[in-house]
Amino acid sequence: MSRGSARTDISSHALRTRPDELRSAWCSQVREQQTLDQAFGTAVWAAAQRAPLGCVLVVFCCAVSLLLGLLTAYHVYLSSTDPATTENVRRPVAGRG
Fold this sequence. Notes:
Layout: H1 3-13, H2 19-50, H3 52-81
Helix pairs in contact: 1-2, 2-3
């Protein structure tokens, strides 16, 4: 049963139930969600133990993506502000003359 359909069942059922029945249905829904959350956490931990290199690869890819995103943001900032560069400034170089 998906999460959305369970909530629809509880809310449509709420119009014709007593408060204690509704509370019981809500508590069972909360317990079911907690069980799913624990199972997901356990599955992620088991996958990490089975393939530690995969976890390293995920962390590496996230770090690379973050750095590329920051670099892109910096270049968008430079493009939008159009700062002066030293290429356009002529100054005498020491020793040349």
